[in-house]
Amino acid sequence: xxxxxxxxxxxxxxxxxxxxxxxxxxxxxxxxxxxxxxxxxxxxxxxxxxxxxxxxxxxxxxxxxxxxxxxxxxxxxxxxxxxxxxxxxxxxxxxxxxxxxxxxxxxxxxxxxxxxxxxxxxxxxxxxxxxxxxxxxxxxxxxxxxxxxxxxxxxxxxxxxxxxxxxxxxxxxxxxxxxxxxxxxxxxxxxxxxxxxxxxxxxxxxxxxxxxxxxxxxxxxxxxxxxxxxxxxxxxxxxxxxxxxxxxxxxxxxxxxxxxxxxxxxxxxxxxxxxxxx
Length: 278
Ligand code: PLP
Fold this sequence. Notes:
Elements: E1 12-20, H1 26-36, E2 40-52, E3 55-61, H2 64-75, E4 82-85, H3 91-104, E5 114-116, H4 134-141, E6 147-148, H5 152-159, H6 166-178, E7 183-187, E8 201-208, E9 211-218, H7 228-241, H8 246-262
Parallel strand pairs: 1-2, 1-4, 4-5, 5-6
Antiparallel strand pairs: 2-3, 7-8, 8-9
Helix pairs in contact: 1-7, 2-3, 3-4, 7-8
């Protein structure tokens, strides 16, 4: 899809995620990343978070049938070229999302690529997923995922593997494949070297079709990385919506997030967001 041509419809990416009133993370970050990557962003809001740069102070879940209705009504009109999930909040929202996605062909049982970012908590530690919903992520979401993009904490929660090096990253990927994920991106950005010092590079491993691809970028030490994970998964989703291969879409995502962290900005008294740049 040539997103820029006048009068032509761009590809459509759908974010199934929570809002952030501070405009840093969640669905707000997703839509910015979609726009920067040349696709139209549609949204199915799962939860409203009361949030600023200091953290999340309250969460209001959207009724599951309203979440499902947003997915159906977008897919039935403009079509969805790729979808991603972020904050899903509860087990019943996950079940509603899965049912609606199955109906409209989102996920590996259909034809629309489906990126699952298994968001469990915010950087500041606020839970964004109920404890009893983790199992639904394992049994309902992962078997439908074209790609799952966990960080190291989410890997520990989902499969109990502590990733400390490449061997354990491969072990984590295998465990997530065993739960049904077609492809796994192990995000090594928060990995500390065994010396306890931060690594010089962010190394992400993509495991797909029996092969492991390595994506490296210089490690940028920036305090303002709010919404970074959401933005990476969204840029990958945008690439898939535009018809890229998974490996190319992850490459696009990695370049996008490196630029976005490099140009992140202070905002408020806490953590500012990454900056979506074309
Ligand atoms: N708020 C919402 C709605 C999110 O979806 C997320 C992450 O996915 C966050 C906050 C946390 O973002 P961060 O951990 O980058 O601060």
